[in-house]
């Protein structure tokens, strides 16, 4: 088991990890999520003893990593798949690691077979593709047959077959009672792989719960209803009936209706009473991606300024701990996509029209152009790039 208590890491004036406490238990695949710069990589480096915490501590099996006897046999990790001497073959790279840890050479050939690199074992690693490099990094993590495994973006560069293989591998390792800690930005993959989630933002803990509980806590279930497209009047009539019954109705781009606050049998009864024919009535649950976007939208540090609709987005709320957050969660307006409403809130009241930004003044035709200036950017302390 991995346990972090009050884990804090500062690089000069920048706090990469701020009083972070969590547990990663064996027998489950635990996903580690957060925006870029949230401190995931720094946290993993502190777990592995590569960075010293400014405050707090983290242990593996009750001991700091540096105090573990023959750590490669107890902990395996993939943090950087490029951390390989390009002039060595895949087999020689793994063989050097095995000799340092007292692992038999036979194990090298075993893990090469597990990751599917047995046919290229004697090729130099500098000729490997990104996906092959990822497989070699996973092989190095499995080399000592450890009980604790950490993976940072393990499916980066893999093809669909490789992604499926990694997913099944993680589940198999967890089913054997091992502790599996996986960091990834692929929400769809995490939804299929992880049993538990630890979510951080700006170095602080946002959520520590199962995937199912995380989605339920940050989204609302809804029903998808569709009427015949040849009769728009029935759609309007159904909208009125559902609204009067206390439901929330939101039109979708394809003509369907997204309904919240009413159970499917109640929606069916209302449609029958109003003599409205339904072409679709189906239950839906928000995806992990939608729930994640809702929770972390105020903790994102890096946003593109090349967005013509940026002025329509509400300003990010000041960061607060989860227990301090109020029930109102701002939406993320995106064309063709609707964020699910927060639990217990009806977001369907007509909002005030956004105020269009003032048009920039047009200089006279013969006036000299104003010199272009660049906004000075604060210099990041050294090694701050590790806090992503």
TrEMBL record:
Gene3D superfamilies in the cross-refs: P-loop containing nucleotide triphosphate hydrolases
Origin: domain of life: Bacteria
Biased segments, Low complexity type: 347-359
Xref: CDD domains? ABC_BcrA_bacitracin_resist
Keywords from UniProt, A to Z, are: ATP-binding, Nucleotide-binding, Transport
UniProt name for this protein = ABC transporter ATP-binding subunit
Give the record's family classification.
Answer: Belongs to the ABC transporter superfamily.
Provenance organism: Streptomyces laurentii
Q: Which GO terms describe its molecular function?
A: ATP binding; ATP hydrolysis activity
Q: Where is the composition biased (Polar residues)?
A: 374-388
List each copy of the ABC transporter domain by range: 2-227
The answer, when asked if Transmembrane helix is one of the entry's keywords, is no
PANTHER family on file: ABC TRANSPORTER, ATP-BINDING PROTEIN
* Region called Disordered, residue ranges: 317-388
Kindly give the InterPro entries that the UniProt entry links to this protein: AAA+_ATPase, ABC_transporter-like_ATP-bd, P-loop_NTPase
